């Protein structure tokens, strides 16, 4: 599983960080950054939730 980020769409809501802070964070400009680009299977469900919970649709999963 690979996380794809469209930084231009990110609106700094932070839902992804709340859903899975081990994988997502916000940078100094408030834009999402991925801490773990290929999360383990153990984190899969929370990462999927974080992607679906993004109101700006700035996140996607591949693989």
TrEMBL record:
Pfam families: Fer4_15
Gene Ontology molecular function: 3 iron, 4 sulfur cluster binding; metal ion binding
UniProt-listed PANTHER family: FERREDOXIN
Protein name (Swiss-Prot/TrEMBL): Ferredoxin
Keyword set, alphabetical order: 3Fe-4S, Electron transport, Iron, Iron-sulfur, Metal-binding, Transport
Database matches in InterPro entries: Fe-S_cluster_ET
Alphabetized SUPFAM superfamilies for the sequence: 4Fe-4S ferredoxins
Cofactor(s) needed: [3Fe-4S] cluster
């Amino acid at each position: 599983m690979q996380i794809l980020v469209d930084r231009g769409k990110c609106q700094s809501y932070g839902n992804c960080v709340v859903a899975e802070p081990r994988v997502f964070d916000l940078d100094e400009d408030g834009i999402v950054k991925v801490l773990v680009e290929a999360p383990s299977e153990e984190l899969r469900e929370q990462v999927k939730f974080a992607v679906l919970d993004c109101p700006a649709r700035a996140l996607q999963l591949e693989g």
